């Protein structure tokens, strides 16, 4: 799905403020010599302050999106995946903190890193489309 945020009177896609490209761009603009998310993950392992700060900021946007989704549809578990899953606890922990801070009452929601591939969304969409097509075909009348 696509989520929007209002920032200074402009709507922005979540991906445009917290996606992989933004993470890498922000890291490079702050002087980090990186090429991909794995490089940032390596810097996190050394407790690089700049990398930690950037990931925490990105996680805060993702956390805000997650808590909004929780309040709208009420899942018991939320999975965070894709290319950023390699960031591990450095990404997931700030998201969990935001979620626990803004849950209602005794509501409990588990936030976990996905263990499936980053192609899961595309695979899920293909399965959904195939299922819908088969449902349609199974209800059509056959004339001989």
UniProtKB/TrEMBL annotation:
This is ROK family protein. Gene3D superfamilies: 3.30.420.40. InterPro entries: ATPase_NBD, ROK.
């Amino acid at each position: 799905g696509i989520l929007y945020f209002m920032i200074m009177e402009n709507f922005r896609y979540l991906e445009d403020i917290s996606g992989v490209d933004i993470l890498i761009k922000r890291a490079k603009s702050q002087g980090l010599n990186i090429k991909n998310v794995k490089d940032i993950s390596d810097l996190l392992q050394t407790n690089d302050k700049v990398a930690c700060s950037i990931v925490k900021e990105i996680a805060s946007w993702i956390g805000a999106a997650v808590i909004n989704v929780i309040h709208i549809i009420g899942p018991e578990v939320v999975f965070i995946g894709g290319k950023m899953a390699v960031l591990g606890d450095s990404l997931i922990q700030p998201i969990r903190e935001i979620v626990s801070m803004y849950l209602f009452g005794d509501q409990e929601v588990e936030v976990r890193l996905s263990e499936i591939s980053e192609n899961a969304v595309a695979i899920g969409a293909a399965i959904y489309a195939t299922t819908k097509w088969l449902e349609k075909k199974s209800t059509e009348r056959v004339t001989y």
